[in-house]
Amino acid sequence: MKPGLKTLISGITLFILGGFVIPFLLILPLFLNESANTQFLIPGSKEVTVEKPGRYYLWNDFQTVYEGKSFSRSENIPDGLEIAVTDDTGKTLAFNSDTSTSSSSGSSSKNSIGYVEVSDPGKLMVSVTGDSEERVFSFSQSIFPKMFLAILGGGTASLLTAFIGFGVGIWGVIKLVRNKRGEQGVAPNA
Question: Which of 4, 91, 132, 183 could make a disulfide contact with 176, Cβ separation 3.0–4.6 Å?
Answer without folding.
Answer: 4
